[in-house]
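Shall we go through a protein fold together, starting from nothing but its sequence? Please make up or recall a protein chain and show it to me in full. Go ahead whenever you are ready, and we will take it from there.
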Amino acid sequence: MGIGPGLAMSSSSESTGGLASRALRGVRWNYLGAIGRIAATFVSQIALARLLGPESFGLFGYSFLTVMLLGVIVEMGLPNALVQAPDLDDDAVAVALGRLLMAGATAALCVFLAADLIALHVFSNPQAAPVLRAMSPTLVVAAVASAAMAMLSRDLEFKVIQLAALGSYVIGYLVVGIAAALMGLGVWSLVLAWHVQTLLACLIMARRSPRSLRPANPFRRIGIAAFGRVVMVTNVVNWVIDNGPHTAIGRWLGPGALGLYTVSTNLVKVPADHLVRNLQSVLLPLSARAQGNDAGIRRAYLTAMGGVGIVAFPVFTFVATTSEQVVAVLLGAKWLAATAVLVPLSLAMVLHAVEAMAGPVLNGRGEPGAELRMKAIILALSLPVLALTANWSLAAVGWGVAFVFLVRWILMNGAVARRLHITAGDFGQAMGGPLTLGIISAAVPWGIGFALRTAGLAWPALWLLALMAVVTAVVLALFTLALPRFVLGPQLLSLLHRLFEKRPTLASRPGLSRLADAASQAAREVVTDHFGAIPTWTPRPKTS
């Protein structure tokens, strides 16, 4: 009996347009969903942080780290393999789902039985054991959800994914989580919110999957397994790099420090992850379908990097510069110790955002081993850095993380550049504008703070943060309108041209005519770049 019936999709919608237009629609839905989820995450995390405090977040963090690591292992890289495979039949999907269910159930049972040992010997905190047991069933739910998401991603059906993610998060955290926290349930409010969110998202995606999800004998051979194993090892390495600091802090500095680090990370990493994952989920199938067209992938990659940089550089440098005001306004007095670690973590997210575009391109080209080799080098570097900083201070861990992300960006983007023949000039054209915006976003609030201190004025944190944000946004907008080609680059401008074509009244609005002219010129240049064309979408028949 299947997990959920597959829904037949109209073939006429697939026959219209090319791969690029489908990818752009995917990006649009991904970012519409991301905006909603960032807003929901922002509100829920601030409310829960004020209601619960660092200790509850630290206890939940122990369980979250455990189930996320095991979740990476349980997936065995099969979701990526299901998306990447050029040809995929229902039999391979069924066997993959059977393996995911078997691995998820086994891991859940192991966590439930070994919760006391994990809490005591891994985290040195016996209080984490009950929470670990309560979180273990999520490994089974996540196994099914990963298969459903893979099927939806393969067909670029990101509308369903985003609506499922947003709806389940709002109900899980904004409704159930906050209500439970107000009732005084402490850490259990986070556990309950997590279960509601993951279960709802799983049910929605499985119900809307374009293929029927029917598990088959997990011990049967499937051709995508070898690709999946390489992806799994890479994902485990990524997990250790990303979450090693949480584990070390929780073990050596205690749940309070882990709570401070976790919430500080959530303030910047959750938006950064939404920013990059949405493009990652499009770049992977796009690169897989465009194999052999390096010029097209190169253009998509540089466009994605530029688009991410336009947002990441100014936002996260602004947060780093105004970290004291951000913590005071959003989290309150009991979280002020998070200020020191928020600065390096914000700068690390700039590097994380631009580096994250490399992995999907390598995987989509069928080269997961290349990413694994780079990440193994980064892991070898991160472990001694973590061992040194975790015994020093919480802020030292943050700066160690920023250094590791810098090396990670250099190695990963270098690997893609060699394969796609991307020059330093190409990188400079794509990243020059975002870098300048980042410098402006740091200089303007610093200048405002310096001027107020010199004048002997002490503004409340809320008013000071609002002033800095408004003035910085105005300066960034004026600079972009004055130098659109330098800031946005030809590829992003050509995408803006499509928007102006659909809504011509925008081009006539005050201040946008210069931007519209630059976009039109860039679109003409891109059209003449025949070598950068992306191949048309080749529809494949779907099975029920």
User: Anything to note?
Assistant: The chain has a mean pLDDT of 85. Residues 254-289 form the longest helix (36 residues). The chain has two domains: 19-223, 228-435. Residues 228-435 form one domain.
